[in-house]
Amino acid sequence: MATAPLNFAVFNKKDWQQLASKYVAPDSLQMTPQILQNIKAYNDQIAVDDVFDIYGPLVSYIKLRYDQYHRDINERANFLGRPAAPGPFIIGIAGSVAVGKSTTARLLQYLLQVAFPKKQIALTTTDGFLLANETLRKKGVFDRKGFPESYNMTALLSFMNDLKEGRSPVKSPKYSHDQSDVLVGEYDTFENPDIFIIEGINTLQASAETPVYISDFFDLSIYVDADTDLIEEWYIDRFKALLASAVAAGDDNNFFAAYTKLPTIEAVASATKVWQEVNLPNLNDYILPTRERADLVLHKQANHQIDTVWLRKF
Predict the structure, then answer these.
(1) Quick one: DSSP state of residue 252?
(2) In the prediction, which pLDDT does 42 show?
């Protein structure tokens, strides 16, 4: 397990759980095993107790930051003599493929909506801003899908800017994990969200195309962390789950359909090769170095259980 930098306070699960929750009462966060099952991703594992122990204090902390954000923009507007900017409070979630970002994002969306029923809580992923597979092949970088050069950063930054400036509606391209490709001409549309969550492996990265970071638009950033060996295990477990889903669907257009025609041992060996040659280098070279840019780090151990929380002090 990595050592937190000096500018982070480190909490074990017990200490984090005991933080005062005066902003959001833990018992107000309605959660059942059935709801949690619908929220979590394919092979992710999380217990109801973890929701209250880890995410309860986190929702309280987000409420604190959300209130501070609105005080700040109102005071800044008064200073400038201009109307307050209508943009949403934006939460960015980063971390490796298969580490559980999607579950964290969806769980936070649900809990924030329960905690603040009058607010609109929206969620999207940076996957939709990947270049289409056809474009990646033409550029000769299909094997580097997920690396910085495989994203349309100009479009992503434009989306973030429009969102933060309060323009409405804004659209983000849809991505299909079944097809492993962007869905051409299909979008998710958002109108005046109060809190906006965006998750993706690249949310804390810089871009060679522009000096602007995606995280420049964030009001809170979270990095989901785990030891590399565990992430590889979860990646292979997820691959097996997606493979089983493809078999059940019987859809030849499914990205995993080709793998279903292979012996299981060969299919898993192919996935392991992709991890070692694509996802692991991407993690080591581009994703993991962004961890210390986050405001908060959720570190997982076996079974996706969060054992440590790093909280930025300054």
Answers:
(1) T
(2) 67
3-state secondary structure 51-96: HHHHHHHHHHHHHHHHHHHHHHHHHHHHHHCCCCCCCCEEEEEEEC
Q: What is the pLDDT of residues 291-309, one digit of tens each?
A: 999 999 999 999 899 999 9
And the tokens for 158? 């434009």
**Structural domain boundaries enclosing 36:** 8-312
pLDDT value of residue 30: 76
Cβ-proximal residues to 298 (8 Å cutoff; 6+ apart), any chain:
54, 104, 222, 223, 224, 225, 306, 309
Number of domains in the chain: 1
Mean pLDDT, range 287-291, rounded to an integer: 97
Tens of pLDDT, residues 98-109: 999 999 999 999
**What pLDDT sits at residue 28?**
66
Measure Cα distances from 62 to 115, 154, 187, 201, 249 in Å. 11, 29, 28, 21, 39
Are 188 and 133 in contact by the 8 Å Cβ rule? The answer is no
187-to-22, 53, 60, 212 alpha-carbon distances in Å: 38, 35, 32, 24
The CATH number of the domain where 153 resides is what? 3.40.50.300
In this prediction the pTM is 0.95
In a domain, 2, yes or no: no
